Amino acid sequence: MTGRERDRTVYLDHAATTPMCAEAVEAMLPFLADSYGNPSGSHSVARAARRALDDARETVADLLGARPGDVVFTSGGTEADNLAISGVAAGDGSALCSAVEHPAVLEACLAVGGSVVGVDRRGVVDLDELADLLDERVRLVSVMLVNNETGVRQPLESVVALVHARAPEALVHSDAVQAFSWLDVAALTASVDLVSVSAHKFGGPKGVGALVARDRAALLRPILRGGPQERERRAGTQNVAGIVAMAAAAKATVRDREEASRRVRDLSTRLVGGILETVPCVHEATARKDRVDAICNLGIEGVEAEELLVVLDELGVCASAGSACASGAIEPSHVLLAMGRTIEEAKRHVRLSLGHATTAADIDAALLAFPRAVGRLRG
Ligand SMILES: Cc1ncc(COP(=O)(O)O)c(C=O)c1O
User: Fold this and answer.
1) Region 304-332: what's the mean pLDDT?
2) What is the pLDDT of residue 359?
3) What's the CA gap between 316 and 313, in Å, rounded?
4) What does the pLDDT look like over 255-278, one tens digit per residue?
5) To bridge 285 with a disulfide, which of 100, 297, 300, 378 should be the other Cys (CB 3.0-4.6 Å)?
């Protein structure tokens, strides 16, 4: 990389994580210094932390369409997903999830002996296959709201209706980690028993999230034991600073959601349209109507995504693809494979994801860098 090539950094990886919003930073700071109490204690310092935790719980519950007692604070989306699955399904093959779930759901589901429901070429869960797999033994069905690699939205209402009709005892979980920035999660998950969110995907800090566990799901089996916190559903001293910041980020996200969505729709239209116009043999993994605007997944013929990401990074554009394995290499995406792409095809896809911090200047710079990067690799 040369200084000339990288004038500025264009961050198009908001599905991986987002910068913290000002409201979250401001809310968090006092709890890193002066307000350090353990919310489980009874003296005045502890009570101050307890009040902050209670306020944050009310805010998060309200914004997720839940009651404060339904909210279990966790260390992030991964723990919320694991708690939803392991807290309900035992190792008796009684869990189902879609083939395009984040590994936090997919692997937790397989670990309890669960089964995977296929998706069609668009990446949408196959409702006929789900119907065939649903019977009275099923305890939990997990289908995400928005996919983290393709942005594809799942038909959650139809999933819930099917589960209620075929397996009325089963609970429905939805991973809303990628949805909260863009969609009205409270409304879309009103009839869902368990909902996961993660603060760092919507302007909050890393390492904090929440699981809504309402009504029939309230009695979760904990995966962390050793304390009465979170109504005995998650032991361990709460991350008060992180939780307070998550509540502030959630508030700002919901307040600005409509405007941010509109802005990101325009920016992503220009980004994808510009790339399709200037770079031959590029296609979108999914149609626009099936996905949120913020997550754009592009297949580029004749170019390995892993190499493209390196050149884009040299040109100042941060993007991603598939998921990194333990060695740091990029594995072909299980999501694209489930959508019927071959391994070779899947290796040519990159994800460009926009967020509340993306600007028109970022898109201009990306539109200059992308054709240069692809041209350099195609030779
Ligand atoms: C859909 C989805 N679920 C769960 C997670 C895990 O969240 P966290 O990073 O907070 O553990 C992610 C993060 O990439 C995600 O995109």
Assistant:
1) 86
2) 96
3) 5
4) 999 999 999 999 999 999 999 999
5) 297
Distance from CA of residue 13 to its chain's centroid? 12
Domains and CATH numbers, the chain: 10-19+256-378 (3.90.1150.10), 22-252 (3.40.640.10)
Q: Which atom of ligand 1 is nearest to the CA of 15?
A: 16
Is the pLDDT at 107 greater than 70? The verdict is yes
Angle at 341 between CA 336 and CA 188, to 5 degrees: 35
Phi-psi region of 226 (alpha: psi -120 to 50; beta: other; left: phi over 0): left
Q: Is the CB of 362 under 6 A from ligand 1?
A: no
198 close to 146: Cβ distance less than 8 angstroms? no
Report pLDDT for 366: 97
Is 325 annotated as catalytic?
yes
Give the three-class secondary structure for 33.
coil
In 3D space, the residue among 63, 17, 36, 16 whose CA is nearest the CA of residue 252 turns out to be: 63
What is residue 72's three-state secondary structure? strand
82: Cβ contacts below 8 Å, ≥ 6 apart: 104, 108, 223
Least confidently predicted of 3-7, 8-12, 116-120, 228-232? 3-7
CA angle 99, 101, 107 (to 5 degrees): 85
Write out the two tokens for 49. Answer: 């932390």
| CB of residue 358 inside a 6 A radius of ligand 1 | no
Q: Tell me which of 101-115, 123-137, 329-343 is least confident.
A: 329-343
Whole-angstrom Cα distance, residue 160 to residue 201? 25
